[in-house]
From TrEMBL:
It is a single-pass type IV membrane protein. One of its GO terms (cellular component) is mitochondrial outer membrane. This is Miro domain-containing protein. PROSITE patterns: MIRO. Coiled coil: none annotated. InterPro entries: EF_hand_assoc_1, Miro-EF-hand_domain, MIRO_dom, P-loop_NTPase, Small_GTPase.
Amino acid sequence: DAVERTPSRGISLSGFLCEWALMTSLDPAKSLANLIYLGHNCDATSAIHITRRRSVDRKKQQTERNVFQCFVFGPKNSGKSAMLASFLGRRFSENHTPPEQYASNVVKNGSKKTLILREIPEDGVKKLLSDKESLAACDVSVFVYDSSDSDSFHRAIELLSNVARLGEETVYGMPCLLIAAKYDLNSKPVNIKDAAEEICLDMNVDAPVPMSAKEGNPDDVFLKIVEAAEHPHRSIPETQAGRDGKRNRRRVYNGLLSISVGAAAAFIGLAAYRVYYASRKNSN
């Protein structure tokens, strides 16, 4: 169920490769074992390209990855499952909603990238974020909310803040996007739009991306997710606590720098005095 199907319910070559990318992301050892079962008789590890750490990608402001994993957060009934179904070209069915699901497909943005969407149930977020390493595998996160429901929006912002806070406490901060789902509905409270613009500006993230799963496959949404993952130094949310921490670290650094400069100046002055004193002594 994690990849696009053919009309006869089979799996195309593209779907097979997307399934393989998903399996490798979740369990690399299983992929290596399957390669051996299939008769891959050279060094199996040569089939997997291990990329550099995401923290290095942020510093270099670019990534060499071709497979991106995206965590999909959002309150219940916000449109997360419909988004994953749309990514695979399917109609969303409320009769089939597993507690956690994946969707893997190719996104073409000049080159082919494989995007893996992992839906995080709202009631599973607390358990996920209790693990400090939980965001290590995540290249980009999206936060889906029902654009016609103020409560849904505020809960999405709360989830964004929690994820941003963990990213600041660890080295796993990543680009984040807000997705305004169910955009086909006529009822869109003006206060949500105004609040979204203010919060996005305050947290240093892009404006919400509108999405309507009912109007077909929203390719623009998935393109924007891949583009965000390709620029790991952008749209990383900041909390007030994170900004305060940065300022405190900057003050400590500047204080230590001043002490170091003062100590160096004192050392140079003492050395100069000793040279001067020695020269006077020799002249006498």
